[in-house]
Design brief:
alpha+beta
Length: 75
């Protein structure tokens, strides 16, 4: 059974980005997370990470449609 909550380092590994990038995403509100414990450690719920990924796929698809690939060397 997969854990419900992930460390920021786990999220970074899932997304193949740095820990600091994930921290910025959380602090900016781009990726929902919670602070727990006396030291205020961040945790990301797995379902929120999956929603984030789905949202990014949709945003990317919209961007691709709005920015079609143009042949720069017409012949």
């Amino acid at each position: 059974m997969e854990p419900r909550f992930l460390l920021l380092s786990d999220v970074a590994a899932e997304l193949n980005v740095s820990d600091s990038q994930v921290y910025h995403m959380v602090r900016s509100g781009e990726l929902p997370a919670i602070k727990i414990g006396g030291r205020g450690q961040w945790r990301v719920e797995r379902v929120r990470l999956e929603e984030y990924i789905a949202r990014k796929y949709a945003e990317t698809a919209d961007w691709v449609q709005s920015n079609p690939l143009v042949d720069r060397d017409p012949e």
